[in-house]
Amino acid sequence: MDRMMIKSPAVLIKIVILVLALYMLSQITPIYLPIIAAVIVAFVLNPFVNAIVDIPLGARRHHLPRGIAILLVFLLAGLLLTLVTTFVLLPFINEFNKFVVDLPRLIIKIRDLTLLIEQQANLAQVPDNVRQLIVNGLGEAASYAVSLTRNALNTVLAFATQIVELVIVPVLAYYFLKDWKNLKDEFIALFPPTLEVKVVNVIEEMAIVVSNYIRGQVLISVIMGLLVFSGMYFLRVDYPLVLGLLATLTETIPIIGPIIGAIPALMLAYLVSPILATKVAAFYIIIHQIENHIVVPNIMGHTIDLHPTLIIISLLIGGQLYGIPGMILAVPVAALLKVLLRHLWYLDDDKKDR
Asked: If DSSP states are collapsed to H, E and C, what string results for the chain?
């Protein structure tokens, strides 16, 4: 009885601390962006750091200290970023400025196109309710496509101008890469010795899921962005760099992201001619078949073992709570929750192994 009385206040204090910590985390959401960006950078660069550390030096087969290896990888990443800025970002900014200048004209064209479709529907004697549904749907789709393109690209440029966050990200990434094991050990030390093995298993499995997902998603997004840019360039659709970057961003949203990214391209192509829009639609269908049957299976494998229904529900919840960033993070968060719940549910190892 005395032992219960001693344990109860300790348990109560831990619960209170946990609740306060969760409340504080819910109130400081603006700091999540640089932290998430640093985690992504750390997971992407970690294989390169490990490869440099594993290189033997001299006859005694010494190895570079991890801190120096991280700085070398940062230097190489900085050189790569400089090349990307010179040959991709600067042309993109010029093209994006042209897109912003042309946006009012494009909106007028889209409205004229909507009126034309409405007139053709009247000539075809389409029922009023069907005609209204088509017109409203096209108008909403066009407005959403323009708004999405403008907001997404403005978000990218706004983030690029936040110098403080750009400085914090590599600093955090450096410490994540260098002291991950120490951070993990300190977190594990918060739990009783009887739970340490269980906590280690959960952390390691979560790390594998997040690591594979981030690396795979970054690679897939870059591949699809390059494919879209190349396709739009050769099909002579306006603003291929903008459409390529938009495809790169929307690829981070599973299932519905590629569809969202295709809408602006189809609208821009249709403003030129229905034939060009047909070619663009065929192009997107082909590359997404390639993505679904070749790119994703070979890069992602079964990293995120979630049913499509759970993925869609996760996207809806993430979008409702935090908009587009919530949709981007919804699937990896759902996968992590699945890992956590599975370990918490099967507390008995014998049950888990059956």
From this structure: CHHHHHHHHHHHHHHHHHHHHHHHHHHCHHHHHHHHHHHHHHHHHHHHHHHHHCCCECCCCECCCHHHHHHHHHHHHHHHHHHHHHHHHHHHHHHHHHHHHHHHHHHHHHHHHHHHHHHHHHHCCCCHHHHHHHHHHHHHHHHHHHHHHHHHHHHHHHHHCCHHHHHHHHHHHHHHHHHHHHHHHHHHCCCCHHHHHHHHHHHHHHHHHHHHHHHHHHHHHHHHHHHHHHHHHHCCCCCHHHHHHHHHHHCCCCCCHHHHHHHHHHHHHHHHCHHHHHHHHHHHHHHHHHHHHHHHHHHCCCCCCCCHHHHHHHHHHHHHHHHHHHHHHHHHHHHHHHHHHHHHHCCCHHHHHC
